[in-house]
Amino acid sequence: MNLPKEFQEWFATQGWQPHPHQIDLLNARGDSLLIAPTGGGKTLAGFLPSLVELRDPPGGLHTLYVSPLKALTADIARNLSRPVADLGLKIRIEDRTGDTRSGQRARQRVDPPDILLTTPESLALMLSYEQAPAIFGSVRRVVLDELHALAENKRGDQLMLCLARLKALAPGMIATGLSATVEDPARLARFMGGARVIHADPGPDPDIAMLPTTRPAPWAGGGGHYAVPDVLAEVARANTTIIFINTRAQAELFFQAIWAANDANLPIGLHHGSLSREARQRVEAAMAAGELRAVVATGSLDLGIDWGAVDLVIQVGAPKNVKRLVQRIGRANHRYNAPSRARIVPANRFEVIECVAALQAVRERDLDGDDRGQGPLDVLCQHILLTACAGPFDADALFAEVREAGPYRELSRADFDACVDFAATGGYALRAYDRWQRLMLRDGLVRLRDPRAARDLRMNIGTIVEAEMLKVRFRGRGGSLLGEVEESFASTLVPGDTFLIGGQTVRYDALREMVVEVTKQPAKEPRIAVYSGLKLATSTQLSHRVQALIGDPAAHVILPPDTQEWLALQARVSGLPRPGVLVSESFPHQGRWHFAMYGFAGRNALQTLGLLMTRTMEVAGLGPLGFLSTDYALLIWSLDPVTDPAPLLDRDGLREGLGDWLGSNAVMKRSFRNVATIAGLIQRNLPGQRKSGRQATFSSDILYDTLRRYDPDHLMLRITADEARRGLVDFDRIEEMLARTDRFDHRVLDRVPPLAAPLLLEMGRVPIAGQGRERMAEAEAAALMAEAGLTT
Amino acid sequence: MTAHPFDFDGQHLLARTSGALVWPARRWLIVSDLHLGKSERMARRGGALLPPYETEATLDRLEAEIDATEPDTVVSLGDGFDDDAAGRSLPDAICRRLRAMAAGRRWIWISGNHDPGGICPRMPGQSVDALHDGLILRHQAGQGPDVSGHYHPCVTLAGQRMRCFLVGRDHLILPAFGTYTGGLPVTDAALARLVPQGTAIACGARPIAFPVDGARVRPRKRAGGFRRPF
After folding, report:
1. Helices A395-402 and A413-425, packing angle to 10 deg
2. Most buried among A49, A56, A373, A657, using CB within 10 Å?
């Protein structure tokens, strides 16, 4: 297809030349995946074929656009309106998200627009309607935006199942994926169920370097506050800067530190996922209007609206992952053909090495990424239930359709049947629900036993299971909303505790009707800045690079001088970790023996390893007292020294310990809650339902314990274990670490070795105490008794 | 130590960490809110298909308590069944097991709001609305002093939620014994009204007793500098 004349003229009027990839997409006959840097006219490329075809609208829904962000759909609608108006196209473009009014939704079901802009969850919901075949039968094109981001989690898996459904409803439909730069485009194309990869010109190499700082990075810590003056100076020189920080708590602290030093009163904002939506929107609007010189942000700004004015990105803290770093760099300078400018600020000495290694990887365009493996079965369970909501289905046909979805192309029939059985009867060894099953087989088709169940099932749509969040408000009538904190965080607060939110220090007063009430406490230092949550571990590939860099003294010349000296000293008094060799050290410090091991397996895997190894040490009578893990190293302190690490790292022993320990672990319970919610075993807590109070809900932990005891082979436990091995527990990376270890190099030293010294300063120590929690509760109760003048 | 001794209404009693109450003078074992058949009821009403093992799990724990305390009388303090139909549709194996547990002792089912219709004939023992026998036992607290259940009281200590007994001047309220039962914080207005001042006995690995004072039950001081690692 050539670009029609009026379109060529429209491009000319804009002073634009169609990009080759835009023409390429126009001519594509099948599914395509466009890989383009930000600012490459990606979205227009995705819509161009639709606009050309819609010169003569055939009626009915023609193009479906799916984006991970609600905000993006609104932005796209605005951006499309201009060419549509200029070209005089007679088409209707509407969005359909969780925010769309019910009247509009109802109308869309009867009279869909030509182009519908939506999110994966809203699409799943619409596909569960009985009218889905009528609504979607006419679809010719689907545009999947920011596919690289969606492919990283279960939202993408759900979207791919929906895409397979769409293809069944609208044969011949063409899908186009739009993605930022990724490490393995072919893998992303397979994720889409097979697509031709089109590469846009990647543009000039980014201008990226370490930010020179007046003071060297500290030995430990993660705040990066030492660099505040240097960051401020960069902000003052640039037009608009995004300062990326890895966690919300660190973002709050950095924001506070930067304002404390902001003598020029540069307008600088804060943006992260715990802030209220209003607060985030205010910052976004100010940013769009060019009123801000900088914004301190977390991953909440990784995706989103294009801000052409951003000309500098500063990453504070190790990037953990090269791909994410590259995508963040791309946020600077959305003008095509101008290099993105980015500076990196390591938070401590270890991170200096990681940042240097990451810069090398960026220059070599060597991106990382871990294969997520087969599509998760909890998402499939939800999909099966939602498919039944739309109407009776044939199990064989659904199995064939599901295997068209990229993540499920290798799904076995046995697993599929297990999911159908779970959806129908709960899938228990004790067949208790044959009378009350949710799905039943009649006339060869699977259907809802009670069609009224569809309403509840639709309420449960989606794969994002948020931690229970509590709103934070200023005390008093109509106190303004500050944001949200996790319920688990709130439960650790006692009145008088101070914490940071929205850039201000507040004092916790009370928890009233599920709202955390606080008062302003501007003068006080915040005592707590802990928001719990998964810490992102450094990617496998970047960890390997760091290990290789440390282990090769000849390569140290690219490191700052103080880092070079540090490593040279380590080489003299102990040994340098290097590929193939697992280096560990035992040394005394403050009356305790310490064991440091440089595993380079990421903090989640090393934390798991810490728990498993201290168990074995307990049995061996070494008296372990605690441990801490970083992305590179594990430090365990004990009464007696570890003289030989090999028996502690015996693979079979670790696996066995994993089985025991995993079962009762809080991490597993959290994974189970997510899995059980997505699969539809437990209902999400919906807003407004929780206040009802009385004996409300029992925790999913009870279900987990019950299943473990009475039905240990149940599908939900299987999914939970699979997930934990990869995610929080990350046992796969322990195995990977052991697999690439040819030999151990253990030394017993008489003093703290240089590489271990920063570990002694790290936060996040995990004490080992069997009855710790219980003793703590008793101590609390005893304090109350004493206060009340009572004795037990 | 799995029991906390205390006095209520002139009687000496033991609060066990299982959530069961023992009256040693009479050799009574009192449990509340078993909610047997809960998962079946939820499924029947079109709700989630929860793991159908909670009745078995509840009876496992009840049997362990009976073995440990060897009571002459077992009292279910109401809501023994999640509803009357759940009571009627319990599997035969469960009924046989209950009859075996009741052999050689008195077994009394007090009716609750979930199971007002009395027991089905396959069950051991007798069904009554309330007991007045040295202590007043009923499902829902009324004119005190009485021993009741219904509210499923619980507390949060050191970030951990636990079932608890709530002991006041007029009312002794038992925690729910059933496996799939949630809890109502003792700070809730409904409970604070019944027991404005008293003692909560939390069911940890050991019993933990501490004073409860209206709305101010949250510990004001943190014990030690310990913080949760996760």
Report:
1. 120
2. A49
Separation CA A431–CA A437 (nearest Å) = 10
Q: Which amino acid is at A57?
A: P
Strand pairing class (B11-16; B3-8): antiparallel
Number of C-beta neighbours around residue A744 at 10 A: 14
Cβ neighbourhood burial of A363 (10 Å; 0-12, 13-18, 19+): exposed
Is A772 in Cβ contact with B226 (below 8 Å)?
A: yes
Six token digits for residue A645 = 């690490």
Mutate to test the interface with B, among A425, A433, A436 (most CBs of B within 10 A): A436
The total number of residues written for chain B in this structure? 230
Q: B229 is written with which tokens?
A: 């690692």
Q: How far does B140 lie from chain A, in Å, by closest CA? A: 14
- pLDDT value at residue B23: 97
Residue A176 lies in a domain: yes
Tell me the helices (H) and strands (E) count for chain B, helix number first: 5, 16
DSSP A468: P
Alpha carbons within 13 A on the beta-carbon side of A672: 24
Claim to verify: residue A181 and residue A93 sit in the same structural domain: yes
Among A88-92, A492-496, B30-34, B207-211, where is mean pLDDT lowest? A492-496
**d(Cα A254, Cα A267) in Å, to the nearest integer?**
15
Cα B141 from chain centre: 13
Residues of A in contact with B157 (CB under 8 A): 777, 780-781
A672 part of a folded domain = yes
Regions in chain A scoring below 70 on pLDDT:
1, 38-40, 300, 302-308, 333-337, 370, 466-469, 477-478, 486-494, 502-503, 512-514, 523-535, 660-667, 685-698, 727-728, 763-781, 784-785, 787-792
Residues A114 and A167 in one domain: yes
Compute the distance between CA of residue B174 and CA of residue A369 in angstroms, rounded to an integer: 53
Q: What is the mean pLDDT of residues B217-229?
A: 32
Asked if the peptide bond before residue A767 counts as cis, ω within 30 degrees of 0, the response is: no
> Which residue range(s) make up the domain with A260?
207-363
Tell me which residue range forms the domain holding B118.
3-213
Chain A positions in Cβ-Cβ contact with residue B188 (cut-off 8 Å)? 693-694
**Best residue in A698, A708, A709 to probe B by mutation, most B CBs within 10 Å?**
A698
Instruction: Check B182 against A698: CB less than 8 A apart.
Output: yes
* Mean pLDDT of chain A, nearest integer: 84
Q: What is the pTM of this model?
A: 0.81
Shared domain check, A423 and A395: yes
Task: Give Rg (Cα) of chain B.
Answer: 17
Surface of A (697-726) touching B: CB under 8 A: 697-699, 702-703, 706-707, 709-711, 714
A241 and A187 assigned to the same domain:
no
> Using one digit for the tens of pLDDT, what is the confidence trace for A9-59?
998 998 888 888 888 898 888 999 999 876 667 888 899 999 999 998 888
Q: How far apart are CA A708 and CA A720, in angstroms?
A: 11
Question: Which residue of chain B is at minimal alpha-carbon distance from A764?
Answer: B229
Is position B221 within any domain?
no
Q: What tokens appear for A510 in the block?
A: 């009370």
Which one of A706, A764, A777 has the shortest CB-CB distance to B53?
Answer: A706
* Number of structural domains found in chain B: 1
Interface test with A, best of B206, B210, B218 (most A CBs within 10 A): B210
Rounded distance, CA A408 to CA A375, Å?
Answer: 5
- Cβ-Cβ contacts under 8 Å for A685 (sequence gap 6 or more): A468, A697
**Which H or E element spans position A208?**
strand A207-210
Report the distance separating Cα B32 and Cα B101, nearest Å.
17
User: Chain A residue closest to B204 (CA)?
Assistant: A774
Contacts of B151 in chain A (CB under 8 A): 694-695
Shortest CA distance to A327 belongs to which of A534, A152, A547, A119? A152
